[in-house]
Amino acid sequence: MREEMTPMAQVNPVGNATVAAEDILRAQYYGFLARFLASPPDQSLLDSAAGMQGDETPLGTAIGILAKLARQTSATAAREEYTALFIGLTRGELMPYASYYLTGFLHEKPLANLRGDMAQLGIMREEEVKEPEDHIAALCEMMAGLITGSFGAPADLPTQQRFFDRHILPWGGHFFADLERAQAATLYQPIGTIGRLLLEIEQTAFAMDA
């Protein structure tokens, strides 16, 4: 049985009615992280985060902190923080790509391996997207889509686990831990915590389901 996660009531449901409620919740978490990590949060996303309710669990505590910070943060300030973290003048404080974390360079073997698995899973890169596919936001979107069936039928747990183990687990926890302690992170500090805890829950649950 998967560890219970705090409902993210302010995030729109993902997927279709044939997917179990606990899996819809997992996809919501991945989708929520992807929205914060793909581009600077707009006022709508900040309002959604501000309306979330936490609880006494570690994940719920991080959600509560994020909600409080989202109520105090303007869209302009959020954009400035995002820029400092991920863009910068030449580069941001963090490089959110699997290839960089695993090899120290962009466009390396981890990206090639991901593209091969994407082709097998029927996942197509959108033409307007310029970022390499191994960006953490894209990987979170792919996990959400595998869970809910955005790329066809919902993927079974072994398929989900294989993708998670190959493309997220080897570096995602490290990235989210780095985000938690990044100098430029205020609003994004609890995003790092939520991401790190989600991956820990997923890893444990996949091991139990195996």
Task: Report on this structure.
The protein is an all-alpha fold. It has one domain: TorD-like. Helix content is about 60%, strand content about 0%. The chain is built from 10 helices and no strands. Helix 1 runs antiparallel to helix 10 (about 190-210), helix 7 (about 135-150) runs antiparallel to helix 8 and helix 9 (about 170-180) runs antiparallel to helix 10. About 40% of the residues are buried.
List the helices and strands and how they pair.
Elements (H helix, E strand, L loop, with lengths): L20 H18 L4 H8 L7 H15 L2 H12 L11 H6 L5 H13 L14 H13 L8 H11 L4 H9 L7 H22 L1
- How far the N terminus sits from the C terminus, by CA atoms, comes to 11 Å
CATH topology: TorD-like
Compute the CA-based radius of gyration.
16 Å
CATH first level: Mainly Alpha
Total of DSSP H or I helical runs spanning 4+ residues: 10
Q: Which architecture per CATH?
A: Orthogonal Bundle
Strand content: under 5%
| Cα shape | globular
* Backbone structural class: mainly alpha
The poorly predicted ranges are: 8-17
- H and E order: HHHHHHHHHH
The count of strands amounts to 0
Query: Biggest β-sheet: count, sense, barrel?
Result: none
CATH superfamily assignment?
TorD-like
What's the domain count?
1
Mean pLDDT: 92
Helix amount: 55-70%
